Amino acid sequence: MTTNDQMPRVSPAWLAQREAADGAARAADLVAAVRRVVAGAPRLVVHDLGSGTASMARWLAPQLPGRQHWVLHDRDADLLEWASADVPGTASDGTAVKVETRHGDVGALTADDLADAALVTAAALLDLLTADEVDRIAAACGDAPTLFTLSVTGRVALDPADPLDAWVAAAFNAHQRRTVAGRRLLGPDAPEALVGAYARRGVSTTISPSPWRLGAGSGPLLARWFADWVGAAVEHEPALAAPIAPYARRRRAEMAAGRLRAVVGHVDVLARP
Description:
By secondary structure, the chain is of the alpha/beta class. The chain has helices at residues 12-25, 28-38, 55-60, 77-85, 131-141, 165-176, 190-199, 219-236, 241-256; strands at 3-4, 44-49, 68-74, 97-103, 119-123, 146-159, 179-180, 183-184, 204-209, 212-214, 261-272.
């Protein structure tokens, strides 16, 4: 298992590159359910956990009506600065959306921190947390409905297929479960951990698939995702380095020809106390 003394970090450039694919992938049925849950609220306070540059707020706020106050939580102060510079404009009915930022560790939030939440959201967060942190977040959310989107499942399907695909996927998934700064990350086990945390509290959850579907029209993102995917696999399993070099060349040639397609598994989870 790879051990690292640094917490995983994401760059604003990467978040910007993936924002459109994230928006296309998220489960529309769960957004419809959220609208029903919050319908009629005179003022909607939304706490977004691990907000990054506020892509979740920019995507969801225009799909919800009425007065909205978004509270963006992230441990990366630089990302919160980016978020403050590009906030969502209006709700679906034209009402202005207000935004504030809070710097801190989302895995340490308490019920007091989220006491005013009418809705809690997150995107691409859970795989970076530990089982204890996910359990604490479920406890902190209390009676608020929560929408956690784009949690990785570990399933990847490439077309055309290659014999090395499964080996790379297994090594990547093991890398996602690595220990970082003494914390064992959940990686693709995160959705199951979240559902279990809510089940222990008697809260029902709904799970919907939200895969990325990447192909010729998403060349830069596909290339970046593939490079990161194989890079993490080799970092975890150095024995892959030799066979992965010609594999990567084949895949890059397929990308250049517009032939390579990838379905990258994610799920969205809605909890409704």
